[in-house]
Amino acid sequence: MMIRLAQRDDLEAILAIDHSYTTERVWQMQTDATAIGALFQQVRLPRPLVVPCPHTPAMHWRALERCDHVWVSQDDRSGNITGYVGAAILPWQSVAWVPLLAVVPQARRRGIATRLMQVVIAQARQDGLSGVTIELSTKNHPGVCLAQSLGMRFSGYADHYFGG
How many C-alpha atoms does 109 have within 13 Å on its Cβ side? Predict the structure, then answer.
């Protein structure tokens, strides 16, 4: 697998990636009306849930346009794009923001997303930023596990951010 900066010719393959995923766990939020704060607890679902991509193609295009860097992973043998990540540099917050990350379903669980995120983290360090923020739905247990494996921690929540 090779990771490289995306080129305009990669756009069609990037937009064609199936962003849906299956999960057996979600993060359930509990709040207390007498306090400011929330508790997220991992809950096992009674059956696997297929979660569709929360973004329309137009929203994907717009998010990609806002990224300062987009990297793709490319299969060494076939030359096919197997995944991508987009990152926007937010110097006023000293972070790289990752709104988009996907790996083709047949190539998942092979470390591709980890390698893509490691490239984002390295670029953030090179740019003198203090961190990386990845946006994830509370339904995206695989994404949360990825973020935790990279040493990331919870830093905020926006109700209905992904359309409820």
Answer: 5
pLDDT in tens, 50-69: 999 888 888 888 989 999 99
**In sequence order, what DSSP letters do the residues of the chain get, joined into one string?**
-EEEE--GGGHHHHHHS---EEEEEEEEEEE-TTSS-EEEEEEEEEEEEEE--SS-HHHHHHHHHH-SEEEEEE-TTT--EEEEEEEEEETTTTEEEEEEEEE-GGGTTSSHHHHHHHHHHHHHHHTT-SEEEE---TT-HHHHHHHHHTT-------TTTT--
CA dihedral defined by 44, 146, 111, 122, rounded to 10 degrees?
A: 180
From the CB of residue 8, how many other CB atoms can be counted at a distance below 10 Å?
Answer: 6
Stated pTM of the model:
0.90
